[in-house]
Specification:
- With about 450 residues, the protein is α/β, with parallel strands linked by helices.
- It has 15 helices and 16 strands.
- The chain is globular and about 65 Å long.
- The protein starts with a helix and ends with a helix.
- The chain binds pyridoxal-5'-phosphate.
Length: about 450
């Protein structure tokens, strides 16, 4: 593409496009955006042909890399038969078979699948299922939620209410759902030895006192992504499961980021040998080919919606169960199986963790952590999500050929699970050099 063409695209973009999670004044005045033309595997390419290793799997979605040939083929094949049809009074092979396959790979007891579009809508479904579950049993007073400090469950208004990142929530205070936030087991400011226990006691105390008005607890299992890649002990999850059983509180697990092997197992729940009442999945679900998601629920929940038209779940998004998305999502599961994606990611995860562990020795770094194919460092600054330190490292990485978008002063990598070893080695070199260029 010529320089003039590139510039005219950027001018159009800056004139018309309102970007997500972007301070637009600074973007318009100062940012020279990447103009991406194509992508392949773990890399995308700008209009001048320069390649960038995608260190965040394009917002945690392309876990099988970009344009996996089998996913492209599945989409192409499906598009020759059926692209869209309402899932009301109608079903089709991709939606029906995918539902069965999802229940087979999901934690035990999740036997019913409600389709939606993305992570936020999968959480909206979970919120409404939980509220109506209690309503249908004449227990409408159970309408409050409990979530973790630093939680992120999406940006629709229901999901925003569950969120515990102050800067995302503040403008909507007073409008959003009633949700109590409790200390996160991944908060490193808590007792260093047993942060999960300190946090669990706070959760237990709250639930013991207030279970009668609580609809559900929601957690991101083992790894709170947007909070800055906070990792916590699986014992928190298994103990939370027992507590919710004891007090009859529903437990929602949001595997939108952690699912599909990000933490080293298909579901983060698997590491705690537990199953929630409701599980949200998206992102890796359709491998970056198509926005699609699902919320899985137990038979106990499903049954509470039967028997009377007034008990039915009057909810649904237009693209619910879309055949293209469902065909791709089925192929995603097949690729995980055939290519042993999770097994082959294990040695890659070790390399990634090593890189961040080494960086934690540098003066300007506070701490590191790693779980599965996600690893992070916190810079020794107090900027949090609005900090600029991570962005200086982002610029350095971009110049060297990697897209390393930070969470403020947390620098992290969560590349595709099947990133080729040579790309991973190059990414590790780039991360190391970029961090050292800024803080050494
Ligand atoms: C745990 C979790 N839940 C929900 C969401 C929202 O997903 P989406 O952006 O697809 O709406 C995200 C997005 O990052 C997430 O990390």
């Amino acid at each position: 593409m010529t320089t003039a063409n590139r510039e005219s695209l950027v001018a159009l973009d800056k004139r018309y496009v309102w970007h997500p999670y972007t301070e637009m004044q600074r973007y318009i005045d100062e940012v020279e955006p990447l103009v991406v033309a194509r992508a392949e595997g773990a890399r995308f390419f700008d209009v001048n042909g320069k390649s960038y290793i995608d260190a965040n799997s394009s917002w945690w979605v392309s876990l099988l890399g970009h344009r996996h040939p089998r996913l492209v083929q599945a989409m192409r094949q499906q598009s020759e038969q059926l692209c869209h049809v309402a899932l009301a009074g109608i079903t089709h092979e991709p939606a029906a078979r995918l539902a069965e396959e999802l229940c087979r790979v999901a934690p035990a007891g999740l036997d019913h699948v409600f389709y939606s579009d993305d992570g936020s809508t999968s959480v909206e479904v979970a919120i409404k299922l939980a509220l109506q579950f209690w309503h249908n049993q004449g227990r409408s007073e159970r309408k409050r939620f409990v979530a973790l400090d630093g939680a992120f469950h999406g940006d629709t208004i229901g999901a925003t209410g569950l969120g515990g990142v102050e800067v995302f929530r503040r403008p909507f205070a007073g409008v959003v759902l009633e949700c109590v936030h409790v200390p996160s087991p991944g908060d490193t400011e808590l007792d260093e030895d047993e942060p999960y226990r300190v946090a669990f006691e706070a959760m237990a105390q709250l639930l013991r006192e207030q279970a009668a008005t609580i609809a559900a607890v929601i957690v991101e299992p083992l790894l709170q992504g947007a909070a800055g890649m906070r990792i916590y002990d699986p014992r928190y999850l298994s103990e939370l499961r027992s507590l919710c059983d004891e007090l009859d509180v529903l437990l929602i697990v949001d595997e939108v980021f952690t699912g599909y092997g990000r933490t080293g197992t298909m579901w983060a729940c698997d590491q705690a040998s537990m199953a929630p009442d409701i599980l949200c999945m998206a992102k890796g679900f359709s491998g970056g080919m198509f926005p699609m998601a699902a919320t899985l629920a137990t038979t106990r929940i499903f049954d509470a919606f039967l028997g009377d038209p007034k008990r039915a779940f009057y909810y649904g998004h237009t693209y619910c169960g879309n055949p293209l998305g469902a065909a791709v999502a089925r192929e995603v599961l097949a690729v995980y199986r055939d290519e042993e994606i999770i097994e082959h990611a294990q040695p890659k995860a070790v390399k990634l963790a090593d890189c961040f562990r080494k960086l934690s020795k540098l003066g300007g770094v506070k701490r590191w952590r790693g779980l599965g194919m996600a690893a992070a460092i916190d810079l020794d600054t107090d900027g949090g999500y609005l900090g600029r330190g991570g962005w200086r490292i982002y610029d350095e990485a971009l110049a060297r050929g990697a897209y390393l978008r930070p969470l403020g002063d947390t620098v992290y990598a969560a590349p595709p699970l099947n990133i080729p070893d040579s790309d991973l080695d190059e990414l590790i070199q780039i991360i190391d050099a970029s961090v050292r260029a800024v803080i050494d």
